[in-house]
Amino acid sequence: MSFEWQNQIIATDKEGFLQSKYLWNEDLAVEMARLEGIELTPQHWTLMHYLREYYENYDIAPPMRIMVKIMSQEYGKEFVNSRMIHQLFPGGPAKQGSRFAGLPKPKNCL
Amino acid sequence: MAHTILITAHPRLLPLNRRALSYCESIVAEGERINQIFFMHDANFIAIHPSAQQWSAFAAEHGISLQTCVSTAEQKSIHLRDYAAGFQQGGLSSLADSILSSEHLVQFNEDFTESDMYRKSGLTDKKKIVFIFKSAPKENSLAAEGVDLLLVLSAFEADIGVVFQGDGILNITESETDRPSYTKRFKALADFDVEKRYILDGKSHNIEVECEMLTETAFQQIVQESHTLYF
């Protein structure tokens, strides 16, 4: 599968994950989110940057508990819980978040 | 009593393949239930091997699901359209679910022994599972699927332990050469609440994952009390 963006053909797998991580940049992320009806906010970006960093270190998406912890450090415990994180990425924070962050599908064979 | 059977060996080990099938037949003959037979890693090739016909017939007769992992199949270029009847593609979460709803768990791996099986088949504490990593890291290895299953089970809040033994310790040892990327996932074990992490008989310096050293006696104790899976 693919979509067209800025006169380029962006190749994805059948679930919309980029075929090549080298295609990714922040503008493309904005477009990928827009195509799924999501406007990226600073909260989205905090989590997406964290997903990229975690993937680089651990080759996997972090569990929800860790995402809540990281987001709480940034935005305060009183504002962050797993529901809030799910609302940011209704398609699943690990799955949809990784997709917009230009990462491969979390390989848990789920 | 419900059983989960995990087969991880290549079909070229025909006697083992036959042994696994006859074990499954004996379970059914005793009137017990098989939740799932899962063909992991090289065992995925059984789905397209001539010996698959016998599995198909057995599964059809008893209404048992023969599961494989969709991403393993992709990685090994095994196509669903070539699968024998009754073989399906699913994911590790369905395997995890089956394991946690079974009292018995037996793995048929390359160095399977009969005595091991009789001990395991007598075990009924379904929640305690120990993953033993004993092979050196290698790209696309069984261990890569093992760590994924481990992380999936941890999300199900199963009682899981992990032992790095012998060459398996290299999975978590600092190295100057690049290791396969799946080995990074071991460093996330603590984040996934896998607190029981052990090392048995090997060098213990430059270890990147915090683990407790096990004595042989302590290890035997753990093995006696748990379902063991080898990777």
Describe the structure in your own words.
- The complex is a heterodimer of chains A (110) and B (231).
- Chain A has a two-stranded antiparallel sheet.
- Chain A is built from 5 helices and 2 strands; from the N terminus they run ββααααα.
- With 110 residues, chain A is mainly alpha-helical.
- Helix content of chain A is 49%, strand content 7%.
- Chain A is globular and about 45 Å long.
- The model of chain A has no long low-confidence stretch (mean pLDDT 92).
- In chain A, α2 crosses α3 and α2 crosses α5 (93-100).
- Chain A starts with a strand and ends in a 10-residue tail after the last helix.
- Chain A has a single domain, classed as Orthogonal Bundle (Arc Repressor Mutant, subunit A).
- With 231 residues, chain B is an alpha/beta fold.
- Chain B folds into 2 domains: 1-124, DsrEFH-like (Hypothetical Protein Ychn, Chain: A), CATH 3.40.1260.10; 127-231, Hypothetical Protein Ychn, Chain: A (3-Layer(aba) Sandwich).
- In chain B, 32% of the residues lie in helices and 22% in strands.
- Chain B has helices at 14-29, 52-62, 70-75, 92-100, 114-121, 142-155, 216-225; strands at 2-7, 33-39, 66-69, 87-90, 104-108, 128-133, 159-165, 196-200, 212-213, 227-230.
- In chain B, the strands form 2 sheets. Chain B has a 5-stranded parallel sheet with strand order 4-3-2-1-5, with helices on both faces.
- In chain B, α1 links the parallel β1 and β2.
- Chain A binds chain B through residues 57-60, 62-63, 65-66, 107-110, and chain B through 69-72, 91-93, 145, 148, 151-152, 155, 181-182, 184-185, 187-188, 191-193.
